[in-house]
Amino acid sequence: MGSQLSLIAHTAPSIAISSYIDILDEVHYLSQLNSSRFLKTCKALDPNGEILIKVFIKPADDYSIAEVQKMLLNEAQLLAALPNTLNYSKIVESDRAGYLVRQHLKSSVYDRLSTRPFLETIELKFIAFQLLRALDDVHSRGVCHGDLKLENLLLTSWNWLVLTDFSGSMKPTYLLEDNPGDYSFYFDTSQRRTCYIAPERFDSSKYQKFNNMNSKLTPEMDIFSAGCCIAEIFSEGSCIFNLSQLFRYQNGDYSPVDFLNSHLDDPILREMILGMINLNPHKRSTVKDILQKYRGTFFPEHFYHFYYGYFAELATIDDGLPMVGKTYGTLQLPNLSSNMDKIVQKIYEDLPKICSSLGYPLMKQASCCPKGGNKILKQLTLPGIGTILLQDPALEISSVADESALLLLSLLFHALRGVKAASVKMMCLELITVFSQYVSDSNKLDRVLPFVVSMLFDEHPSVQALAIHVLSQLLGMTKSVNRINDVLFTDYLLPRIKKLIQVAKYNDYVRVALAEELGEIARSATRFNDMAITANDEYGKVMEEVESRKKQKRKLVHGFEQIAVNLLTDSHSSVKIALLSNILPLCSLFGREKTNDVILSHLITYLNDKNASLRIQLVKSLTGIAVLLGPLTLEQYILPLLVQTVTDSEELVVVMVLKSLKTFFSVGLIQKRYYFDVAKIIAALLLHPNTWIRQFTLSLLVELSRKLSKAEVYCLLYPIIKPYFEFDVQLTWDSMLSSCKKPLSRTVYNILCTWSLRSVSSLFWKQVPSKHRDLFGNNSVVFINKDYVTKNYGLASGYKIAKSPIKLADNKEILVTNEDKGWLEKIMTVGLKDTDLWKIAAMRSYAFNVAKMLARKPETITPYNPIIENGSASKKGLSSYTPPRTVIFDVMFLNNATQLNEGQHMIIKHRENSPSSLTTAFHRLALNKSIDLTKSIQLTKAAPTLTSNLDNVYVQLEASKLRPQNIQRSTSSDGDGVPSMFVVKNSYEGNDENIKSFLRSVDVGPAFKHFPEFGHASSARNSLTAASTTRPFSRLKFCFQLTETRSTAITVISAALHDPYVLSGSEDGMVKLWNIPKILAGEIFGSSLSYDAGSSIMDIKPFPEFDLFAVSCKDGTILLLKVNVHESKGTRAFTRLQVVRKYKVKSSTEFVTKLAVVPGDDKPLLVALTNSSEIILLDPRLMSEIRRLKNDPLHGAVLSLSVGHDKSSIILGTFRGVINIWDARFGTLIQSWTFSDGSPITHISLLPALTKREGQTIVIFGGSTKSMFTIWDYVKRQCRLVVTTDETVPSIDEYLATDVMMDHLNKHMDEASCDQVTSMVLEGLNVLVSEARSNSMFCFDSRAKTMIPLTSDYDASAVKYEPLQLTANTTVLVRQRQVSDESGRKAEMTLHNDTINSIAVAWNKTERYYISGDCSGIVNIYK
């Protein structure tokens, strides 16, 4: 701007600087930042945010800055694409002044160095690295800065460095050596007297020669200034040169080495700076040389390959910078506050790559879950990684040792304040938790903790809850505390947690989260306090410090006490349950005395709480608390309460009490004098109908016997429990379990409790007045018997005594009245025998106490209502309370939905003048679901009354159900099997938005039978009786052979369950329907219908009562294939096979090998087994995936599949002989076992139990090479029957279920063979199988325990099996050796010359047909 500008410029403006700003459009002046003579700097606002304006006051009206403006704009264009430069976005010239406008950033590097928290070394290095990279980018575009100093290095809140205020076009290149005026005028704007100008720029000759015209800056000048900046950055703000020192350095009278040695410890850094500030510009290192030379030594490697590039990408998200041309919105850094959501989401998605690039170790959590639902501490579930365990990484990893994670954390801290969406804030908190692993403990507390605590008061409850969890995790990861953080809890955390409780007064979710984590926070507080005491020991402590530490501990306990009492007395049971889930650390902090006074005094009141879940959690937590408090508290307070709770009305509470008592006995906390009283109280529970209660009672008695001597067991304990066993037993688990007397049925037990409540004139429930108390302080309940004299109890009158009393097990008798006799007759009509009446007398005391508990009203949960506050309610509030109502849902199918768009929500308005408008638009189904707003969905048969004045009833159309363009095609062609569209209405007439929102969230859909494309339940039904289905098979008569599919293997044959036709599937993808009666009658000689699926058929399964089949193909598709039937005059004609549903497995290499159908109207299920051993659960109504179950690959590939009797368990058989049972409702593995030599299990099928005692049984082919198949009770894991392959009698040890051992599985993996049975089908109690070796077929009758050949022409006695009883529960059929008699043997039928792949049984009224298909494509029909 001219060499003499410093002489002619105004010393002070004649008017206020704000007056100069007012002429700019859409700009509002805020403040003046500095008042240098050259450029006045102001802060202002424009529509895009804060801007900075540098005002140049012209020395004369005719002074022009046009040339400077042109050069600045050209420079801005060159640097516009760089994310680390910030140029002037607009230059304005007026008559009096010139204006340079750019975006305003609040902080420079100079400001940041003096701001807490102070930067760590890794952050300083990254700033220096960014400076060098920015210079490299600028110099590569032919631009030099000219005025590098800390004030011109701007820094964002996430430590991204930006170069600004380029001065090459405005300030002189060379200055006078003997006149500091120009330097002060142009460069010392901050008046700090620092001088980072390269020495060669102080050259009077060049100053006079060029007169600042045609003189250009060189990169070496910027290198010198950059070296000075880096030296100041690492010396905590101390400058390496002032003006006088620079002149002396230029003359050789000053050396910066002394400064560097005194301020910098790193010799590599000193070497780098000295190379940059070399007095000879030609010997200075270039930027590229510096970056290359100090790569991996001073600058970490991850700066080069990850951090800088990744941060630059984040800084330019959404395509970076706009173009030049306007005052606002031009050449500014992207407004990252609006893009922070995208930035956090990107980091969240890239987390696996980030950890891999930086070498951050992630310890993955094993797939197994902890038993009992215990909370796993220090873990986090992340996308693309799974569940990880938070840890203390090894410092040998360079990226961990240098705490490079601070760079990412700084960005996340900035994001946490800028993001708006709750989900993104939660992502941010999770990322902070992960990266906090890799920073020091002091940085966890000083840098991370304050941001997490700030989220405790976020507007979103989900964010608050997660912040509490992250706070707990962060404190748990901290292993050391410095003296500054000694009072972290008392002065910082506890006051904010107390405030949080007040803020979350009406937010149950946040209070539950706090209660759940309070124990872990207390554990950390205890650890911090112990570390502080240890630190005092190391430094040597005096009495004042000891007293101070005691005072600090009292303050800490008092703070936690206030929080704990607040949560212990919370009005919502869920908060108390959460607190109890991890209360032991809190008790440990309080100590024994305080726990007794504060914790236990509140907990004992919970036993009377009406919420059963709270009582269950209380009993669980009392076990640990009792161990902490010791035997005295246990015997005086806790044990009497637990014994009293044995009669709780909630049976799961009783189970937990028994489990807790067993723990106390096993650890020896209870004295022996209490053993027998406990045994007397719990012995009657051996007759309880609840299996868990009986088994835990047995385990408790076994534990008692282990603690007693033999004399005590048989003289004192055994007489108490003897009446409850069939015979004298040893006090072991197996012996007692097998010999327990049959318990009361649930029906009898319920009647007994009802009798206790309703008895009026009863002697059975009459008690003897007694003041006796047992050892636990509870009143003894004693009932009268015949030994008492009637007049002593007022029985001479007022009671009508029945003639026959009840006899007890000890031959005592109980008087009963006629009323009692009536109740006894009710009990006997539901199955109780006369000889078992003593059982109800034994259960009398227990049932009496339980009935009193049942009489109490259940807990009612009242939602928060602003009308009701502080426990008082106005009359208006009470009178406006609306009682619960029933809301009816109505599901209707659409006949024509062309007016609807996919994924829409529609509002249907009912008009009184057009009540039939909906009737014409929709086809109504007779399906109605009602929902009780206080409970759960209910089904009702009554048709709903939908009034015509319902206004704005919300109807939700799910996107998966709305395919208007495919509606007509689905009824006229195979198409894609698109489901029919339907809408859901409800009868709610109120205006409560919460209720409306809830009703919209209820998943209501039509029943399976109401979908029109599935057809109606078939009217042709075979009148099959139980006798006909269980009738044993005899030798089959060959009827017909079909060769239509010759040369193409038949893979599967499936018979309809109600009509005499079968579907076959072949390798060429053809599905064919065979009408058996017409084939045998000679009317047709081949298949009736066929469908080309386009890929090999893997399995076909029928849907009961429908002409519908599920078909799986090798290309990964599952089809629902409907057999269209035309009925006329009692005859049924099959017209075509139509696809009504289609599902495609996502993976291109995956396909379904086995199918199973679970029928049901409301919750039908299609179970699919894939070749990758995954189980896919589908809802066949819409073919939507419900859940995937991943079987353990170590158990081997899954070969067989069956659904249990309860329709909710899935039984799998694997290649390594493992049986896995899954619960389909919850997706959990219930149990796994194997037996014998673990050969592949090729087939599993359910077998109807012959008697109730036999339980739930399955037929298993495989598992042992010594047997053809076995029958198991899969609930008890007991083998019922073994069918051997030879005459060898197997050992019972071979057929005992054993837990899965990996060594055993690996041993037999290569020895497995699975070629004995190729196919099987279950028909009633008959098991039909085909053998691979002889292509013959056999039938096993499970009732008669015999096996006969079906297709051989041997005599009936050709194959004999001798039954042997191995144990009381296990029978073995041993195959007998045959005597060869060629003369008596007839020729064997060879109807199949190839392997039989599939067999099926079809019924025509009472006639039974047997169909088989082989690999050559031949289908045989037998009768």
TrEMBL record:
All residue ranges annotated as the Protein kinase domain in the record: 27-299
Annotated Gene3D superfamilies: Leucine-rich Repeat Variant, Transferase(Phosphotransferase) domain 1, YVTN repeat-like/Quinoprotein amine dehydrogenase
Keywords: ATP-binding, Autophagy, Endosome, Kinase, Nucleotide-binding, Repeat, Serine/threonine-protein kinase, Transferase, WD repeat
Reactions performed catalytically: L-seryl-[protein] + ATP = O-phospho-L-seryl-[protein] + ADP + H(+); L-threonyl-[protein] + ATP = O-phospho-L-threonyl-[protein] + ADP + H(+)
Main localization (coarse): membrane
Tree of life domain: Eukaryota
GO BP annotation list: cellular response to potassium ion starvation; late endosome to vacuole transport; pexophagy; phosphatidylinositol phosphate biosynthetic process; positive regulation of transcription elongation by RNA polymerase II; protein retention in Golgi apparatus; protein targeting to vacuole; vacuole inheritance
EC number(s) recorded for this UniProt protein: 2.7.11.1
HEAT repeat start and end residues: 599-637
GO molecular-function terms, A-Z: ATP binding; protein serine/threonine kinase activity; ubiquitin binding
UniProt keyword Hydrolase present: no
Keyword hit for Calcium: no
GO-annotated cellular components: endosome membrane; Golgi apparatus; late endosome; nucleus-vacuole junction; phosphatidylinositol 3-kinase complex, class III, type I; phosphatidylinositol 3-kinase complex, class III, type II; vacuole-isolation membrane contact site
Pfam families per the UniProt record, alphabetical: Pkinase (PF00069), VPS15-like_hel (PF22956), WD40 (PF00400)
Residue stretches of each WD repeat: 1043-1076
Membrane protein topology class: Lipid-anchor
Subcellular location: Endosome membrane; Golgi apparatus, trans-Golgi network membrane
Name this protein carries in UniProt: non-specific serine/threonine protein kinase
Organism: Lachancea lanzarotensis
